[in-house]
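Working notes for the structural subgroup meeting. M.R. asked for a predicted model of this chain before we commit to crystallization trials. I am recording the input and output together here so anyone reviewing the notebook later can reproduce the run.

Input as submitted:
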Amino acid sequence: MNWFPKPAARWSRLFSLGALVGLLGGVAAAGLEWGLEHGSELLVGRFTYLGGADVLQFRWGVLLLPAAGGLASGLVVRWLCPRAIGHGTDVLTRAFHRRLGKMPLRGPLVKAVASIGVISCGGSAGPEGPIAALGAAIGSTIGKVFGLTARECRVLLIAGCAAGVGAIFGCPLGGALFAAGILYREPEFESDAIVPAFVASVVGYSIYMAFPLREFGEHMLDGASGLVFSEPGELVLYAILGPLCGLLSIFFSVCLRLVERGAVPALRLPRWLSPAVGGLATGAIACLLPQVMDGRYLFIQNAMDGKFTAGSSATHLALLFGGVALVKCVATALTVGSGGSGGVLGPSVFIGGAAGAFLGAAAEALFPGAVPEELRRAMIPVGMAGVLAASMRIPMGALVMTTEMTGSYGLIVPLMLVCSSAYVVGRRYGLNHEQVRSAVDSPAHAADAVVHTLEAVQVESLIDRDWPLIASPDDSLPELVRHVRPGTRPVFAVTRGRRIVGLISVADIRRFMEEPGMADALIASDMMSEDLTTLHPDHDLYQALTAFRLSHHDVLPVVTRGRHSEWLGMLTRERVFETVQHQVEQLQKLVLREHAGLAAMEQEGQLQQLVMAVTPMSKDRVQRLLVPMQAVGKSLREADFRRQFGAQVIAIEQPDGSLQCPPDLDTPLETSQRLVAIVWDTD
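Returned structure, recorded in token form:
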């Protein structure tokens, strides 16, 4: 068995695998970005400029190109991975909570490639969701390759998501917090995965930046790094911006649900054709506002740079920015909700930037000269964070992500206000339908209280170092039987010097006794099980229970580490159970003191689930029995003892105390004798 008992060894492994996940996630993000950069120039960039302020310009290419991208996406997914359903964050969240961290690589890989076609053709979607899912699938696949537990696979799944998001957004810290927080509707993090997510995100970001796609220190929005929060009066506009972002996220969510659950089922089209219809509708909208096709944030950057202010009134700009924000929600719902490959994470950021620009322009239109230009510009990155916080239900992650990817460190105060208020307003209608309320509601944490209890106790404290049943490989069966106490399930440790070479249980003895004539010549080495599952003193009880599950014995030998390991003693299931029962009883007392009632019932339920894993599996016991009256005068063979009485006689104790082992099957039994037998439950 592969164990990582010491914290340093376990963390070293997770660090190493997290770095590997980050490496592959960074490469995947760079490949996706390269494809989008060149694809957008070759396709949608040939028909219109997406960063301008032009509206109502009909072009056949703008109308039909998103439909072509949707059709190609639908066909590719239909042919290569027909079961790939859902957008990125939904899929990875479902894999974490419902599928033991298992996320096959094929579906996210196909959808990531297909998303390049959709976005390059002007579909209103983002690459960030697909790369989050692809990174998560890479982490899950690495966990599968290395034979990790479900718990560790979940950790690597989150680490892969962090690597992808941290790389493509240029926010290593934010990517890690995003991945650890996207699983829950409440502002909660998956604590076990945070450190591996940090490692993967840092490596993924560094690998991504090594490609000639973006320079180190370059931010998504140029010019945001110089913006600062300068006076308390600015909080008035930010206090309005937060709820506005929350309402926009609700509108976005409603649009997406109407398309996914209403329009698409009503049309009854083949799954591969629906994205083409959604793309055609997106193209029609783009003929009115081509900015909705922008997947590269060109429009937001130009708004940040003030390129639309010359020759345009504040009212006109407010209508433009507000219209783009609303219509982008509809266009993204049509593209992604119809089944087109792509994510909603990037559009959420875009919509937030447009919302911030709208509020700044609207304030200037209502109160000319009262709102400084720097404040209007500052509301764009803050708005990005607001919609992201509400739509993904990650207020802290959105704050850090936006700060990193825009460089707006001087706007921490308004970012805190807007992210928290937007989250409170829009949290009920998030875009990730697979999120659960908190860790308590996740199947992945169903037994956390018990698991943490088990992990807190090491095997070393529970070793029975004076194990009474010790045999050498040459001991005979009668010698073993003499050491058996009635009413027990004996397990003999077969040792050679200071090493343990095998175990002999009741089941082993019973198996050989059922073969006629074999018992006369049996010695310990003939009966012992040599394929031993062993424990080390620094293993915890959670690891010990896993070992018990893989072993058919009720006791496990504990040995020292190293090539020439020495036997220290035994760990029994009963001792584990007694320890856990004591720990849970103490926990119940604390819970009752604080909460009473239901909390205690929950702990009781967890204890009952644990009993099945801890208590002995075998019910065979060695007993000394009186000779049954119906068997007196008959031999063991004539009495058919196994069938009639459900016991295997391994020895006959004579009146003088001597043992006849193996027993004579043909000698009549007497009332003065005692039978040493293995009795088992026949139910």
